[in-house]
Amino acid sequence: MQVTDRLIAEAWTLVDDPHQTLKDSGRYTDENLLIGALGEIAVIDYCWNNDLLIFKNEGRSSDLKLYSGQTVEVKTQKVSSAPELHYRVIAESRSENTERSDFYFFTHLQYVAGRPEAVYLVGGCSWDKFWRLSERHLQGSPMMRHYPDGNEVANGRYFAVDMNLLPISQLAPPSATLKHFKSLQQREEAQ
After folding, report:
1. Which of 18, 123, 136, 182 is most solvent-facing, going by the fewest CB within 10 Å?
2. In whole angstroms, what is the distance from residue 57 CA to residue 62 CA?
3. Whole-structure pTM value
4. Of 124, 103, 109, residue with least CA distance to 1
5. How many helices (H) and strands (E) does the chain have?
6. Closest CA to 44 of 81, 7, 17
7. Nearest 10 degrees: Cα torsion 128, 132, 138, 141
8. What is the pLDDT of residues 118-175, one digit of tens each?
């Protein structure tokens, strides 16, 4: 999804929403808040464009809420290239105990010449699946560059905090994630 002026304006509106308390915590830079909001808006647009009701969840518990009541945490990574199946998605390890959602939806935000250019909807999985299959990397351990043949090489950077990583290939693609979300919505409507 191309990052447009409209998408950026919607993201800033979301960041400035008085019902959202992240800006008040002082933990995130404006750029971090924009990156997260762009990912959330992209997922909302994707769902609405495919006839799935999903809304911004108020407060800190989860980013989005499906019409069926399930919650979705959107994790957005700033990247410099389009995602590939051997790349990893990432979540801060402390999130396992401090956040609780039913699902994760991962996005990559590609920057070109210092500006957000495109949001890639990478895929989704259940909260439990992510924490069961992801690999924990401790603070101070080297970050790796992953290759399609399975090889990995240290890239010269180190994890600033404990992080959990999962290969993109382990996620359901966006279309399958959407299909699952729709089945939950249809179940709710049938009741």
Report:
1. 18
2. 6
3. 0.89
4. 109
5. 6, 10
6. 7
7. -120
8. 999 999 999 999 999 999 999 999 999 999 998 999 999 999 999 999 999 999 999 9
